[in-house]
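Progress narrative, work stream C.
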Amino acid sequence: MDGKGESNSDYGPLVASIDEGTTSTRFMVFSSKTEQIVASHQIRIHKEYPKPGWVEQDATKIIEAVISSIEETVKILQSKNINPADIVTVGITNQRETTLLWDKITGQPLTKAIVWMDNRTVKTIENLLNTKPDKCQDQLREKCGLPISPFFSALKYRWLIDNVPEVKKAIQENRCLFGTIDSWLIWNLTGGVNGGIHITDVTNASRTMLMNISTLEWDEDLLKFFDIDKKTLPRICSSSEIYGYFKCTSLKNIPISGCLGDQQAALIGQLCLEEGQAKCTYGTGCFLLHNTGPKKILSQNGLLTTVAFKFGKNPASYALEGSIAIAGATFSWLRDRINIIDDVKEIEKLAEEVSSTNDVYFVPAFQGLYAPYWDPNARGLICGLTMDTDRRHILRAALEAVGYQTRALMEAMSKDAKIEFKELKVDGGMVNNTLLIKLLADICNVEVVKQTMQESTAFGAAVAAAMADGINVWTVSDLKIERENFFPSISEAERNSKYSKWKKAVERSFGWSNQS
């Protein structure tokens, strides 16, 4: 690396992370002494909607954005007289389940990446289940911890095989590589067609429906179920180890030593490293994870069993997860499609101008409903409109919907894990909205804990990278996080009455796209 700034010992060794999300990619550099961000750069990522229910991204634009973010951050470090050569390692965290196939000879994607929230595989599921004696959507849960849903990568891969001739040809000619976004980034950054490393970590692999969550290896029965060729799949690694070294950018020869799906990275970033701890991240979607330690709890209430993390040779920790497709995406929709706001930053002020929703309820089932309902045919609706309703009521109802969805996840999790939530740690872009956090506390009847440093996902990837054998910059005992607490302020009767009405609205959304 050509670091032109002078080394500044006030920051100590620097730890960086690539945070490749659904709406943007960011590169962040943390001080090992203060755990604070010393430099970062962010680039928005465009999504395409070619057909109803389809969501795609251009994977070449993603890797270009990652490289640009790195280079811009290096310039920022130099402008601050901080030596980029002090970066000792980089972690990667990524949008999970987003599926990509590429040609290992040319290095080019074979298709657009199918984004995690894409819903095109509903028919693929029907076709698969119709060929099996047991048509139950939970028939693979014991092996992979997941229901058969459009959410997960195996269904997207199967759809591409069935519908894109170039993919089938590339598989036959042994040119096809499969990966989630972490695999695509690591392959490119470690050399691409010139020796790029084709790997993934256990957290991302646990979202494909192809990994056995007990053995942490690709499972022959699952591969056979989806008729997927194992040769196309990446090698599964732990979440914290040296995978390889940068062969490009100003970070050349710096190790990549952390890799986690974004929600698992946020779990680490919130320091939920012990059994019984939980966090909820509010971004494009909403994801509640509860650390169950070495125990795999198979949900009876619509939740997912997933790998939380695995540090090097240590045993894996597991989590129960509740996944909601649409959280912050609701507000992008209200801005971009309905045009009732110009900027999502307006929402808090406008929603605070009314004391209630005036009995309006919002169900944001734009891509179906995920946990705990798992209805891909549900569709969004707004109930309770009157001549007195204005945009402020709808905006407040949209905020409350996030709370109601969170409560549904917490209730399911309490039943599965036999726990009672005393607090809920929250992070993600949406928690900058203080009204939302207050509504969460009221609706869920729980103390809500917001950490002051909101980049939990990027921080979690940096922690995993820094703790890897051979790096050893941080230990768990080194890490300290400042927090702010919010408490419930409404009565139990009011809370339950509103939640009951919202559940009625949810029931009306079920199976909507199947109705004649």
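Work stream C, second folded protein:
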Amino acid sequence: MTAATEHSVSNPFPQTLSGGLRNPLADGVGEKLLDYARVTDRSLTNVLASPLTGEDASAMVVGSDEDVVRAFDSARKAQRAWARTSPKERRTILHRFHDLLLTHQAEVMDIIQLETGKSRGSAFEELMHTAITARYYGNQAGKLLKTRKAHGALPVLSQTSVYHHPKGVVGAISPWNYPLTLAMCDATAAIAAGNAVVLKPDSNTPYSALVAIELFYRAGLPRDLFQVVPGRGSVVGQAIIARADYLMFTGSSETGKALATQAGARLIDFSAELGGKNAMIVAEDANVNAAVEGTRIAAFTNTGHLCVSIERLYVADKVWDEFVPKLTDRVKNMTLGSSYDWDIEMGPLQSQAQFDIAVKFVEEAREAGATVLAGGRARPDLGPLVYEPTILTDVPSSSPVCHEEVFGPVVVLQRVSDVHEGIRLANDSDYGLNASLWTSPKRAKELAPQIESGSVNVNDGFAATFASVDAPMGGFKQSGVGRRQGPGGLLKYTEPQTVTVQRVTPISVPFLPRKVYGLVMTIALSLGKKFRILP
């Protein structure tokens, strides 16, 4: 949604938009969800237009520094009680949330689409990933948080255990491109670990977070444990950073660096998924037909509004002549539109700003001599923010579209001699979030680890790794710090504590004369290594 001037409005939830498109926030739904925003003064609102039609579709109250203070005060009280609950109790709530998401998927997806403009299929993928993550951490939290025995300094005499304590109140700042999953999945892990959460959703997409909060509360989660404070980053975001015990951020690399500096000044842990300029390599032995459809999905899912979306495409000379015409034809025939229908493959861009960025990159490339194989045009007949999925080739390497993140439906296609040149060019980037490699599974075992990226999908664009919730997801280089998903995605929200019970004598006080102690310990260390009884 496009933010307008902050002011109060009398009817922020019109029944329908142009073309008869229904507003899922009408009929009291929007007013009900507004009650879940932790904002005291409701006189100031942010009026939002839907990218589906460009018309005002809702309004959101604007939070203040004082609202954040109140949210953290009540969250800290709730967290102390929550920390005493068992993993089984937490699992029950997370499983209920999973079930409620699936039961109410139509309503949730409608709101996601209203705010983001994404296709129905992309909205469903977001909902499905959120449900899978809730189920995963519900099932795994008990195992991950269980007290673990560790090797002590001396066998028998030293008994060492590792405990995991929740951080306290986690501050989360989430983006607009995946407003459900990128808010809820991090929050789910933090809650499963025993924390409270204060969330600032992006100002353009607050209702996607609020509808999920409603389902969480219905699942039995204490209201003060997970709170949403909408508002400006300069106010609400800064207030969260000043009070959080841990900060989770998803957004641009430049903003991430600034927030990391602030977190460092407070000596709190920080995790961030940041930008990407993700590459796909189509090797000589690739299945061309599969790679064509895989490219279409990888580059244009969610209108390219995806941190792990493919924006650079390197195709081996051997398959170029077969691959390029097939890809061009497939992209030219994609179904575009602005609706809740399942048959739309790509929706509009999320805002006028993102639309203008995509146009700027394409026009700069054209002026530099690039060839437009597909797309490169606005489609106002389908919606004010619809832009055709675009394939560029013959792009000079100095052109910004070759190395700067577009975050839109634009991919640069380049011919390479072989897969090794493709890997070299893929690695020639400041980013390293996601990569895709199309080759035989046997060959991939050698090639994939050579790619400098936090995730590498073999014979898939991005979904294979992103859906593997038991594995870490994050970036190399400028693409992030820390990881979400997997065991580490939960344990990062805990403080590990080591407790060692020493028997007979303190380890720092030799129980023998010092020279004899030194000789005995030397023998013990040698035997420990030989018989592998020490770590």
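The first helix runs from residue 29 to 34. No further action is required on this item.
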